[in-house]
Q: What sequence folds into this?
């Protein structure tokens, strides 16, 4: 049935892709209900690959159907408390959304980001660290991809990714999910770097504001690593934006940075080590999901 999906994509046959996705969803749901997680995860991978292939072929309906199929598996995996499958599905949304964004399929990228945003808020509120980090990775990857589409400066999809990451960042700070909060700040910093490459000042300014807000929430909760990463990210944005003559963005980052206590800006080896550990965890999760 997986072959039917790929063959149908090669032929541009939406109905064949839909049949394959429906079949894989039913089988995957059955595996989840039977607590057969490894088998269920194979179905997730198959649906993800079909979704990515459909996006590469510009088949919008088929790509949307892949996301909808994964949503069904997500609900089931959450009901069954199967963390591994849930994380796999969440990362799959990111993979499909990223591919769609790279193909300038804005509707699909928006759908993937919106699903992730909603899932991330839920995961953070439930103190589900690993699931939240998976969402953050997915949103960040979509965000970087949509940011590289130069026009307009602050596109709707870029704004959605920044907003979703910002909301999740605030919740994780309030819930003392420090690793996830740092993860949000790291992804926003990477989005800012992508935006600066394209000279997108409004996007960078929006990201700086979001990082500041997360950092201030973290400060209230005495989350030292998250505060340090916020100030570090703002310093980097201020410097890099200035060197690219993105003066408005540089000033915005400088103003945001000045809202923090000067001691938060001091480099600390322990903070740097912890942040690098979080960065590596996120990198490994994303690489393993490809």
A:
């Amino acid at each position: 049935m997986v072959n039917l999906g790929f063959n149908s994509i090669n032929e541009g046959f939406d109905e064949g892709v839909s049949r394959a996705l429906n079949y894989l969803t039913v089988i995957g749901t059955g595996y989840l209900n039977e607590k057969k997680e490894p088998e269920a995860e194979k179905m997730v991978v198959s649906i993800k690959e079909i979704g990515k292939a459909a996006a590469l072929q510009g088949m919008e309906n088929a790509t949307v159907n892949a996301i909808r199929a994964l949503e069904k598996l997500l609900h089931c995996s959450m009901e069954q408390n199967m963390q591994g499958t849930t994380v796999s599905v969440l990362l799959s949304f990111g993979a499909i959304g990223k591919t769609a964004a790279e193909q300038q399929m804005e509707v699909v990228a928006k759908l993937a980001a919106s699903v992730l945003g909603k899932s991330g808020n839920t995961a953070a509120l439930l103190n589900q660290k690993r699931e939240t980090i998976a969402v953050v990775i997915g949103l960040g990857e979509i965000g970087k991809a949509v940011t590289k589409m130069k026009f307009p400066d602050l596109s709707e999809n870029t704004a959605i990714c920044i907003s979703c990451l910002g909301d999740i960042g605030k919740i994780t700070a309030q819930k003392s999910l420090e690793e996830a909060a740092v993860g949000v700040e790291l992804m926003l910093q990477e989005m800012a770097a992508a935006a600066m490459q394209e000279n997108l000042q409004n996007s960078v300014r929006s990201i700086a504001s979001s990082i500041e807000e997360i950092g201030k929430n973290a400060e209230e909760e005495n989350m030292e690593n998250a505060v340090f990463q916020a100030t570090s990210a703002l310093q980097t944005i201020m410097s890099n934006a200035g060197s690219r003559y993105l003066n408005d963005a540089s000033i915005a980052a400088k103003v945001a940075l000045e809202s923090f206590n000067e001691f938060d800006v001091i480099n600390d080896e322990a903070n740097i080590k912890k942040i690098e550990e979080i960065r590596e965890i996120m990198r490994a999760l994303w690489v393993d999901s490809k």
